[in-house]
Amino acid sequence: MAGLVEWPVVHLGKIEPDFLTLPLEVVTTPFRVHQRYFLLRCPKTKKIAPWFGVVVNGFAPDGEKKCSRAQACFTCTSDGRPVFWQQDTQIPLEIFAQRLGRRQFFDKLGTLHDKTETVKAFFFSKNQHLLQAAALCKADLISSIVAEFPELRGMMGMYYARHHKLPEETAVAMGEQYSGGAEGISASGALLGILDRMDTLVGFFLR
Hints:
The protein is of the alpha+beta class. Helix content is 48%, strand content 13%.
């Protein structure tokens, strides 16, 4: 917040219980990217507290701290995210993957479904979990949450995969495919990400 306000004053806001049931990134991304609020954690459990902080310029006229409902501050989505999560998790990832055929990836390179099929064909591994991750790696792009917050692509795929009880190796690979050269990612996530980028580069050169 440095440089954004002249007289920084922190106010508290309350996070509604429905939001605390969502995956962590679904709550933190709008805070960090859109509203520039910051979360508070319980010092003992390290879990998110039902409060957030917001820095404003100067004091309120009455000199009192303001406590507002989280929905009033979520200017981008209001209270839509719990509804989006509920709707998205009712649809199997395989259905989302089928709908990728309606989304164009790039001119002359086919649809997103075509891309996942190509990435899957690149796999030299016979690991069924990796093949499953390749087939479903772009499925979350159809979801309502990723449509609202593109920053959560891949990550939401991991959460949806876990929700539907898919193998953990499949879920982790889907969640880490966009991690690039980040340290600490799994071999499955790194391999999926490399093959996805290879497919894109080869397609652009051959186009």
